[in-house]
Amino acid sequence: MRKYVIMGIQGSGKGTQAKMLAADLDLVHISVGDIFRWNVQNHTKMGAQVRRTMAAGELVGDDLAESVVRDRLTQHDWNFGFIIDGFPRDPRQAEFFLESYDIDGVIELDLPDSEVRRRVLNRRLCGDCGMDYNLIANSPKVPGRCDMCGGELITREDDTEEALAVRLRDYHDQTGPVLEIFRRKEYVYTVDARPAPEVIQQQIRERLGLPPSQPENRGSEVA
Ligand code: ADP
Ligand code: ZN
Description:
Elements: E1 2-8, H1 14-25, E2 28-31, H2 32-41, H3 45-55, H4 62-73, E3 81-85, H5 91-100, E4 105-110, H6 113-121, E5 123-126, E6 132-134, E7 153-154, H7 161-184, E8 188-192, H8 197-207
Parallel strand pairs: 1-3, 1-4, 2-3, 4-8
Antiparallel strand pairs: 5-6, 5-7
The protein binds adenosine-5'-diphosphate and zinc ion.
């Protein structure tokens, strides 16, 4: 059983790396941001509660974030473990998490702020399958259309200059101290988030003491 936390500033590729590791190790990937976005898209009661907060780039309340994580983890479908992305994001959430679960490691994706803006402001998502594109590094074959499913590419509502400024401030002020808490427990493995996704993935595996992934074992997400 492996239990990992993946942390990193906006645009550092947490979701991409978490999905790759989860596919290979049969871990459940839990993205708190994805759960909130799903609720917004599907017009649930929770979605209505968090929509404006998220669009402004602000953090959702701790009680709600914690209950989302608790509910997800009590499903106990994670026989081989989990990798959680987007949580904990402030010291209170870190305390809650450390009281409830013992973890094997925290992966920190390290990216300079200058690169963050470039990545986030050029990010597009497929509205249908959620596939992630970057108009600079990996643009779709047909502009505005998903290579995988042909769906329409959209911009996340919080990938604007204004909301990004709020998110970056919160990351440094609230999430920075979480990394310090984990560092004191010697859980943190820091990896440079500037290279290509496959290179970063191999570095993560090396830091975690896992064997390199075999190309034939990788899922279609990197095909
Ligand atoms: P990013 O890390 O790029 O800001 P995420 O997809 O992880 O994006 O999160 C998107 C938004 O979801 C956050 O800006 C916040 O509003 C909300 N959110 C996600 N995780 C948490 C959390 N642990 N606590 C509070 N709000 C959260
Ligand atoms: Zn798609």
